[in-house]
């Protein structure tokens, strides 16, 4: 099995683990045994690991492959994961949030909605040919986002003004795509070459 597939397999197992660890009602003894076993597995995985300034060997930064992105990465224990495709400049995302993402009972945490929107807005911005970093994200929570329910997100670029790009996006359910639950407007700023060097220089050197 190729390494990326193995990373995704481990990510799937970790996401299942996070969901079951969130929903389990097993007694204390079982939880302590599980914790001890998991610490052993964690120690084994940590025997060979990378630091902050080294990209994952399975990533292709310039090709857009980020295996551990906390929103879209197949290898991330934190990612729903959100699957995004860009069609005619519109980013369309799909995911289902489990109980690990609960804020108010039965519904998603508001910060999770903002995280999903930041990511999908970013994809629309990159697809427009004006990549940049988020400098502002305004979210409007119109209705709570239900857990364990297929979701549909959209995003598109509205305005490009020099280095500054504005994009908007929404979260709805797959069943009612016309009913916006959360909307967002984001401002992204393209980096100057000196800013790219300052922020990402060490990583780009290892990539080259
Ligand atoms: C396919 C893969 C897709 C990947 C998607 C990933 C999505 C996720 C994206 C993120 O989450 S990025 C992480 C969160 N963002 C950051 O950490 C960025 C932190 N901010 C910075 O480091 C600096 O703001 C930055 C280097 C981006 C820009 O610094 P500058 O000093 O160059 O900004 P400057 O103050 O000169 O402003 C540049 C322009 O942006 C405007 N601007 C800056 N901050 C703003 C703001 N908060 N709101 C509105 N406009 C703003 C500013 O007015 C100005 O407009 P003009 O050029 O028209 O004068």
From TrEMBL:
- Domain Thioesterase, residue spans: 108-172
Which family, according to the similarity comment? Belongs to the THEM4/THEM5 thioesterase family.
Q: What is this protein called?
A: Acyl-coenzyme A thioesterase THEM4
In which organism is this protein found?
A: Paractinoplanes toevensis
Q: How does it sit in the membrane?
A: Peripheral membrane protein
Record's catalysed reaction(s): (5Z,8Z,11Z,14Z)-eicosatetraenoyl-CoA + H2O = (5Z,8Z,11Z,14Z)-eicosatetraenoate + CoA + H(+); octanoyl-CoA + H2O = octanoate + CoA + H(+); (9Z)-octadecenoyl-CoA + H2O = (9Z)-octadecenoate + CoA + H(+); hexadecanoyl-CoA + H2O = hexadecanoate + CoA + H(+)
Q: What class of enzyme is it?
A: hydrolase
Q: Name one GO biological process term.
A: fatty acid metabolic process
The record's section on PANTHER family has:
ACYL-COENZYME A THIOESTERASE THEM4
Compartments reported by the entry? Cell projection, Ruffle membrane; Cytoplasm; Membrane
Q: Sorted alphabetically, which Pfam families does this protein's record hold? A: 4HBT (PF03061)
Q: Which CDD domains match?
A: PaaI_thioesterase
Annotated EC:
3.1.2.2
- UniProt keyword Cytoplasm present: yes
Q: Which UniProt keywords apply?
A: Apoptosis, Cell membrane, Cell projection, Cytoplasm, Fatty acid metabolism, Hydrolase, Lipid metabolism, Membrane, Transit peptide
Q: Which GO terms describe its molecular function?
A: hydrolase activity
Provide the Gene Ontology terms for cellular component.
cytoplasm; membrane
UniProt keyword Chaperone, yes or no: no
The record's InterPro entries line, in alphabetical order, gives:
HotDog_dom_sf (IPR029069), THEM4/THEM5_acyl-CoA_thioest (IPR052365), Thioestr_dom (IPR006683)
């Amino acid at each position: 099995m190729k390494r990326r597939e193995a990373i995704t397999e481990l990510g799937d197992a970790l996401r299942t683990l996070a969901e079951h660890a969130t929903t389990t009602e097993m007694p204390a003894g079982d939880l302590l045994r599980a914790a001890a076993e998991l610490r052993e597995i964690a120690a084994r995985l940590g025997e060979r690991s990378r630091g902050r300034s080294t990209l994952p060997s399975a990533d292709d930064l310039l090709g857009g492959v980020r295996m551990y992105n906390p929103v879209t990465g197949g290898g991330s224990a934190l990612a729903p994961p959100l699957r995004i495709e860009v069609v005619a400049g519109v980013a369309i995302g799909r995911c289902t949030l489990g109980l690990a993402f609960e804020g108010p009972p039965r519904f998603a945490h508001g910060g999770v909605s903002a995280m999903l929107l930041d990511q999908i807005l970013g994809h629309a911005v990159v697809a427009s040919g004006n990549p940049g970093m988020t400098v502002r994200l305004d979210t409007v929570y119109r209705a709570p986002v239900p857990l364990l329910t297929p979701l549909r997100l959209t995003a598109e670029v509205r305005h490009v003004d020099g280095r500054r790009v504005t994009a908007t996006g929404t979260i709805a359910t797959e069943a009612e795509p016309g009913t916006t639950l959360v909307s967002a407007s984001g401002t992204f700023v393209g980096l100057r070459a000196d800013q790219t060097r300052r922020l990402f220089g060490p990583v780009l050197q290892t990539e080259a």
